[in-house]
Structure formats: C-alpha cells, structure tokens
Amino acid sequence: MADRGASALSLPEDWPAHPDPILALNNMGSFDWDLDTGLFSMDAQAHEIFDVRPDEYDGRPETLSSRVPPAEAHRLDALVALAIKDGRENYGAYFRLRRGDGSMRWTHTQGYIRRDETGRPRRIIGIVRDATEELSERANRQDAAALDAARREQTNVVQIATAALAHARTVQDVIDVVTDTHGLTLLGSRSLVLGLVEAGRIRLVAEGPAGSFVPGTRITRIDEQYPMSEAVRTLSPCFIESPEEFAERFPLLWPRITGLRITSAAYLPLIAQARPIGAMGLLYDDRRGFSPEERNVLVALGSSIAQSLQRAMLYEQEKDLAQGLQQAMLPRTIPSVPGADVAVRYRAAAVGGTLGRDIGGDWYDLIPLPGGSRSGGGRVGAVIGDVQGHDTHAAAVMGQLRIVLRAYAAEGHTPATVMARASVFLRELDTDRFATCLYAEADLSTGVVQVVRAGHIDPLVRHADGSCRRVPVEGGLPLGLSAEFGRLEYPVSTLELDPGDTLLLCTDGLVEQPGTDLDDGVRALTDLIAESPEDVRALANRLIAAAEERGGDDDVALLLLRRRALEAPRSGGRFQQHVAPGDPEALTQARHLIRAAVRGWGAGERADEIELVADELITNALMHTEGAAIVTLRVLEGRDRRLRVEVEDSSSALPRRRDAGEDGVSGRGLLLVDRLTDAWGVEARGGGKAVWSEFQVPGRPAA
Fold first, then answer.
1. What does residue 681 show for φ and ψ, rounded to 5 degrees?
2. What is the CA radius of gyration of the chain?
C-alpha cells in the first residue's frame, strides 16, 4: 500500500554520520540511497528493522532481497520509479519484511528525492520503521486479501501451465514447456531439473536454465540418498525448507550445489497410473519454507506435468508402432536393377495429432521381371499406390494389395491384366476402401515403358538435359470400384526413356497443396524437379524435404527410376573385412587394411578422408546396432573412377543427422561424412542396411 501523503524529510546534510536523534527515539531507522553509485546506506536502527547485521550487508539493495519478498520488492521499485518520473519530491509506502526467523513484519518507509540543479535525481534519503502494531487490523485484512490473491495466482499458474502442456505432443515438447524462461518464471524457481525413471535409475533429461545439471547426477539409482530418488521411492513430494535441512538430509548432493546458494527446494514425483515415471526438482535462492498453498500448487503442477509426460510417451510409442507397421508393410529391400538407378522414399503425415493416425495406405514397390538384356538392362515393374484412409486398416489393405500386385506381375501377366486382377482382389476383400494405383513395366535395355493407371496421378519424366514434363496417361477406375471382372478396362500407354532419363512416380501428397488445384501442384513439382540434382537419391531427398517444409495432412510415397547410360560402370578392385563388436583388434586391423588398399589402388591422396569416413561408419554400426559390421571397399570404373565404401549391419534403423551436443562429443558423424565424401546414402539390405560413401579418385587402373 502506498502513502502518498508523506511529508518531506528534514535530515542533516552530513547524515548518516550524525543521525537525527529524534528518529532513534521513535524507533525509526534512516537510509541514504546514492542513485549514482547504487549504494544503499543504513543506520543501526535500519539494520535492526531489516534484521541484517552490519557485517552481513554490503550496501547493495539486492542484498536485502532475502528480506523483501519479490512481490513487495517489485511494488516498491515501481513506486519509486513513478515518483522520480512524475517529478515528485517524496513518496511513502507500507511493505512487508521477512525476518531471519521467517516471520513477516509490516514496515513503513518515507523517502525524499533530492535532485541537482538540472532536475536529475541524485539521492534518496528517508526513514523506515516497524509498523506491525500500528497496522495489525489493516494487516489482517491485507493478509486475507493477499491470501485470496495468492490463491487466484496459484490457480492461474496451474491453468497457464496446463494450457501450455496441452499442446505438447512429444516428451521433448513437455521438456520445452517446463524448461523455457517463461516456465521458470512461472514456477518462481532459480533452476529446474527433470528426470525420467528407466530400469531402476533416474536419468536427467532436462535442465533450466542451461548448465543447471550437477556433475555426477545425470544418472542415479532410485535407492541412493538423493532428493529426487526419495521422491520417486516414496511417491511423495520432498520439500526442503532451509540450507541446513538440505545439508543434513542429503549430504551427498549438498556439497555439489553450495555454490548455487540454494535456500530451499521442492522435489516432486511425477506419477501416472499409480507408478512413478520421473521426478522434477525446483531449487530456490530467495525463499525459506513453503506455505500450504505453495505446496498444493507445486503438487498440482507436478500432477499436470506427469499426465502430459505420460500422454507424450504413449504418443511416441504409438507413433513408433505405426511407423514400424508402415515400414513392415512396405518392401524391406529394393532390388538392384541392371541398367537403372532407383530411389524410393516414404513420408508419414500426422493427421490432427491423433494417435495411431500417423499411418496411411501409400506404398511403392519395385518388381524384377523375367527377360531383358543382362548387359543393357533388365525388365522391372514399378508400382505406386494409395489406399483410401489414414489408419491401420488402410495399412493392412495396402499390404495385401501390394503382395497380390507383386504376385500378378511376377507371374508374367500384362500390365492391364495385373491392374484388373488387383481391382477384383480388392473388391473381393469386402472392405469399404478403394485405392488408386499406377503400374509401369520398363524394359531398360530398350527404354520402353508400358504404363497402366487406375485413378492415380500421371507420371513425370525428367530428361537428361534437366527438363521435366508430365506424361498424360489414359486411365481407368480406382481399384476396388469395378462391378464385374469382364467389364474391367485399363488402357495401356507407352513412353520411352532415353539413357539418363528418370521416371518419377508419386502419390498425391507430393503434389497437392492447400488452396491450389492439382494442375498447379504438378507444375510446381515439375519446376522443382528441373532445379534439383540429377542423382536419383539426391533428387528424392530434395523432394521429400520440400514436402516436409510444406507440411500437409497426407502421406507421400515416391519412386524414382533412372535409366543409366549404356556404358555401365564395371567393378575394379575389391576388399571386404568383417568387424565384430567388442573386438578393438579387428577394428584396428580394418583401418590398416583400408589404408593399404586405398594406396594400392592409387588413391593415396584421399587415403586420410577415406579411412576417416570408413572408421566413422564402422564405429556407428558397432555402437548403434547389436551385431557386427561388414566393410566393403571397391573401385568402380566408368566415365570417372570412384572408390566406394559400404558398411553393412543388421539393423533396419536409418541413421539420423544430428546437431552436435553441448559437450561436442557426439552428433558430428554424419556431418563429417557429408563433408568429406562426394556422395553418400543408405540402402536396405535384407533385414539390415548398408551405408555407402563414394570418392572420386585418379584414373589409374585398379590393382
């Protein structure tokens, strides 16, 4: 409360060297605040009112923050700033102090603002006095009002936090809400740590602000004597109300955080469905103890965070399950096709953030067909399709349809017959779903491609000169909509791929854009393809990246088939080494053999780069999979001479490029590979994969 009727003070000019005795007789303390230096001087009576010994006080107002609650301090600062801004000579206010024993006392202050000849404020002198008895009745009313305000504020805190957490879909989203600057301000703590329970341990996954982790506590056992472990073990909040209590109860942790000047802490168990999933620690440096209302709001916040974390964990589990199901329905491997370079991609789209709907019916397939020329190229069937819907049923229908399409094509049926039989099969499944599909049968020795379309979008062809065009293909009904087998008609169109041309098949998720029609989307796609790299893998990555940037609520399936030039590269020298996990000698031997092979093939000037990339890929395979790594080096002779490094492992999980962590130890691997190689990528191999890198090397014949 402010006292705007305060009168100007009359203090001696040499104050506080000679304090006014009248003030002392009235139990009033005096102060002198030098606005230029920031020093806030007090006499002995003022020290007593603030309950601060002279040897504890350094003349800085900030030192009194432990005595003045934050809300009171903000109010006083605003009052003084307003008086200075308005040009007033004095101000007055009542405020509350927290004494060393934790008790609250009412205090009154009056200040007189002294300015220089230019009107600039230079000094504030004034008095402070204990006003508890004077305002006992008023204080009771004020306390009641403050309690109501605090309750409203606590309710507001819970509502704001709950609203922010409601938008969190992943565990990282929850962490971001809790640890950002606004979250810390909301919770009123100096720092925050968040840990998750994993196999009898607590692993810290978040801190706020950055750098708040205490060394040696990132992973702790639940049975250890730490406050977070106690909260998880007992399923009860652990409130620590003073430094002395902290040191006595948790002697393992306290010596490590003394530099933070923590005065109290609250460790909250995060409980979901009657089991602990983690804990959160809030550390304070401006308070001692917690009122019942403060404890209640912290427990409520902990409950809200726990529910959000559980929801995020379930979402991520469902997403992993959906993506795993989708990957299981798609081809596990794409066969090598003589005379062609192939790239396939799939991008799942979340629909409204609903669990289980990150899966759809889009698919691709590549089917080796009998016939064709071994030297000039083989025959292959390329399929792209989209089953109606975004759910597990759509994925199940897609999986069955993909299998029968593959079977009909492999039996040697014509493209029109393959499509007609697939349509009958889908109708006889007695499902309410239909599917669009495009089937292209290519003879790579001649470049002739026969195309059948069932309600799908037309294919695109990128020519060797970089131009791209849409190829209109006469089509029939989507699969599953025909009435009788005898009435099915799927016209066959023919196009021709010259050496260097690329056939592009995709689902409408790559073309459709909100607010535009299909033709506009196709034109935008052809322009993007014309500006993109010629290599099919790089082109596929570019197109999927564009789809990611655009967003959208539909899946994307993509298949690129590029007809190679007739002079296909031939293999030169070859080297292969098996590296078992936990065998450092095998890894060392592989490094020596790689360097020797590279130099023997006349590529010594790139030996360091090749050895470094091979070592990185081998190490990644050993660290992130459960089996051995097989490293293969070979020389490819063609228009240019390339050395190819392949590291094969048994895991189907694809590598992810990540930013380096704060410690700088991890996260740089793929960035290093990308910088040192001329080209790199990932190929599916049975139940596993191969990560490959290529280096252009001098044209000396292979040994």
1. -175, -170
2. 37
Asked whether 182 and 157 are in contact (CB, 8 A), the reply is no
DSSP assignment letter at 214: P
Q: Is 29 exposed, middle or buried (0-12, 13-18, 19+ CB in 10 A)?
A: buried
Distance, CA of 318 to CA of 306 (rounded, Å): 18
> Tens of pLDDT along 490-528?
888 888 888 899 999 998 888 877 667 778 888 888 899
Q: In the 8-state DSSP scheme, what is residue 445? A: T
Q: How far does the chain reach from its first CA to its final CA, in angstroms?
A: 92
Partners of 692 in beta bridges = 646, 681
3-state secondary structure of 514: coil
Three-state SS letters, 479-501: ECCCCCHHHCCCCEEEEECCCCC
pLDDT tens digit string along 79-127?
Answer: 999 999 988 999 999 998 998 888 888 899 999 999 999 889 999 999 9
The one-letter amino acid code at 106 reads W
CB atoms within 10 A of CB 159: 11
Task: Tell me the three state secondary structure of residue 353.
Answer: coil
Q: Which of 426, 380, 373 is nearest to 403 (CA)?
A: 426
Burial of 40 (0-12, 13-18, 19+ CB in 10 A): buried
CA separation for the pair 338, 340 (Å, rounded): 6
Question: In a 10 Å sphere around its CB, with 0-12 CB exposed, 13-18 middle and 19+ buried, how is residue 269 labelled?
Answer: buried
Q: Measured between alpha carbons, how far is 536 from 560 in angstroms, rounded to an integer? A: 6
Strands 448-454 and 475-476: parallel
- Give the C-alpha separation, 136 to 142, whole Å: 10
Kind and range of the H or E element at 377?
Answer: strand 377-387
DSSP character for 7?
Answer: P
For residue 678, what are its two tokens?
A: 């001329």
Identity of the residue numbered 576: Q
3-state helix, strand, coil in the chain (%, to 5): 35, 30, 35
CB atoms within 10 A of CB 77: 12
Beta-carbon neighbour count of residue 122 at 10 Å? 12
Q: Give residue 540's region: left, alpha or beta (phi > 0; psi -120 to 50).
A: alpha
Q: How confident is the model at residue 445 (pLDDT cuts 50, 70, 90)?
A: confident
pTM of the predicted protein model:
0.46
- How far is it, in rounded angstroms, from Cα 554 to Cα 386? 10
CB burial of 512-542 (b: ≥16 within 10 Å; e: otherwise) equals beeeeeeeebbeebbeebeebeebbbebbbb
Length of the chain (residues):
703
Q: What is the bridge-based pairing of β-strands 642-649 and 688-696?
A: antiparallel
Q: Are 316 and 350 in contact (CB under 8 A)?
A: no
Torsion, Cα 183 186 189 191, to 10 degrees, reads 10
Q: Which of 267, 265, 264, 262 is nearest to 299 (CA)?
A: 267
Pull the structure tokens for residue 557.
């399936």
530 neighbors 467 (Cβ within 8 angstroms): yes
CA–CA gap between residue 320 and residue 326 (Å, rounded): 10
Residues paired with 196 in a beta bridge: 203, 278
